[in-house]
Design a protein that fits this description.
Blueprint (H helix, E strand, L loop, with lengths): L1 H11 L5 H4 L14 E5 L11 H9 L4 E3 L1 E4 L5 E3 L22 E5 L2 E5 L7 H4 L24 H15 L4 E2 L2 E2 L2 H6 L5 H10 L10 E4 L3 H9 L3 E6 L3 E2 L5 E2 L4 H6 L11 H7 L5 E4 L7 E2 L24 E2 L5 H7 L3 E7 L14 H11 L3 E4 L2 H13 L1
Parallel strand pairs: 1-2, 1-17, 2-7, 3-8, 9-10, 10-13, 13-16, 16-17
Antiparallel strand pairs: 3-4, 5-6, 11-12, 14-15
Helix pairs in contact: 3-5, 12-13
The structure holds calcium ion (CA) (2 copies).
One calcium ion (CA) binds next to loops.
Length: 386
């Protein structure tokens, strides 16, 4: 009780919008409906990400949508992985038969070393097993689950929707579309063909397709009537709360100088609305946070004295107008990524992830990408009862 009071006071001090205090009149979303809970990479807080097991668990936990990231195999099959590089999320490094596939590749201009899905056939990918890439999450499932194809994810979605009696959706992300095109492995037509086969290539289908690039969304707009989402990335939040942002990679290639931050301006949002239905900003675009600068280095300091520097050493600053501006442009807003571990939670939330969800729900977000769907659903229920 005491903790809740302190937390509420801390949040009130931030002058969060009235919607946070008085939600009773309805959700402050674009359509007035409750915000969606999108299972980011499946129930990735609990099981190795992007596995059928992780997606199924997410639906058990109450998620409305499952989120597969898509990369291509050498033979042009879409599989669910966050990166083309398989080194962190599979056991490929321990497979002697693939030792000679290790190489250095530039992805979106940045060189990395590892084993790349674009060098493996689907048959070879199917011999690999998923592993947990985060050291602070459960490791006991490593080596148990296979890497699913997008078609398998769509079949699972249909089965889970049937079995649960709920409208379960799928929220695929096209990963590095310009890079895939350069490998002669473009993602878009294959993705739409899979949606068609699954009976999901219609305007009212429970499908969102997302991308950090604009060019492929514009191309997709001509190929499919499903909802499209433009993701807004940033590299970091400076100690003073200012976002450090890069550019969509298709802009880099095309010589367009605009940054992601430039694309959050009202004029740019109206432009985005011509090829997308919503935006998916990194959370700090909506509410950034500030830390305390270390006197010697100028870098963020360990404010709470636990010998590490993380989100717990930062305090939220005043929300931006992005949700309001996006809604005004007719775009919904799905924010990423919500995680339970205290190291990801600003000091204001005092280690309670429910408080973070409630803050963003109060701001009017239309959906949240969460590694812990159960926590997001519980926070939504608690808020609906207020
Ligand atoms: Ca994603
Ligand atoms: Ca600290």
């Amino acid at each position: 009780m005491k903790r809740t009071l302190i937390c509420a006071a801390a949040l009130a001090a931030l002058a969060l919008p009235n919607a946070y205090a008085a939600k009773a009149a309805g959700w402050p979303t674009l359509d007035g409906k409750a915000p969606l809970v999108i299972a980011h990479r499946g129930a990735s807080g609990y099981l190795p990400e992007h596995t059928l097991e992780a997606y199924a668990r997410a639906v058990e936990l109450g998620a409305d949508y499952i989120e597969p990231d898509l990369v291509s195999t050498r033979d042009g099959v879409l599989i669910a992985r966050h990166e083309p590089n398989l080194k962190d999320t599979t056991d490929v490094a321990s497979r002697a038969e693939f030792a000679d596939r290790k190489k250095k590749v530039k992805v979106d201009g940045k060189e990395e070393e590892g084993w790349f899905a674009s060098d493996f056939t689907l048959a070879e990918i199917k011999t690999l097993r998923a592993v947990q890439p985060r050291a602070d999450r459960p490791q006991q499932y490593n080596g148990q689950f296979a890497i699913p194809t997008f078609d398998e994810v769509l079949a699972l979605r249909a089965r889970l929707a049937r079995e649960s009696g709920r409208k379960i959706g799928v929220y695929p992300e096209t990963k590095h579309p310009t890079w895939h095109q350069a490998q002669q492995l473009p993602l878009e037509r294959t993705l739409v063909a899979s949606l068609k086969k699954a009976g999901l290539n219609r305007k009212d289908a429970p499908v969102f397709v997302q991308s950090f690039e604009t060019a492929n969304l514009k191309a997709l707009r001509k190929l499919t009537p499903v909802k499209l989402v433009f993701l807004l990335d940033a590299d970091d939040v400076a100690v003073d709360g200012k976002l450090v942002t890069g550019q969509p990679y298709d802009f880099v290639v095309a010589g367009d100088a605009r940054s992601y931050a430039d694309l959050t301006k009202p004029g740019a949002l109206r432009e985005i609305r011509r090829f997308a239905d919503g935006i998916g900003p990194w959370k700090p675009y909506l509410i950034a946070s500030e830390g305390m600068a270390d006197k010697k280095t100028g870098a963020a300091a360990d404010v709470n004295g636990d010998k590490t520097v993380d989100m717990q050493d930062r305090t939220l600053i005043e929300p931006s107008t992005l949700v309001r501006d996006a809604h005004k442009a007719g775009l919904f807003v799905h924010a990423y990524t919500f995680r339970n571990e205290p190291k990801h939670l600003a000091a204001n939330f005092m280690g309670d992830p429910a408080e973070e969800y409630k803050t963003y729900f109060g701001l009017g977000v239309d959906g949240v990408f969460s590694d812990f769907a159960d926590t997001a659903v519980a926070a939504r229920q608690a808020m609906a009862r207020r």
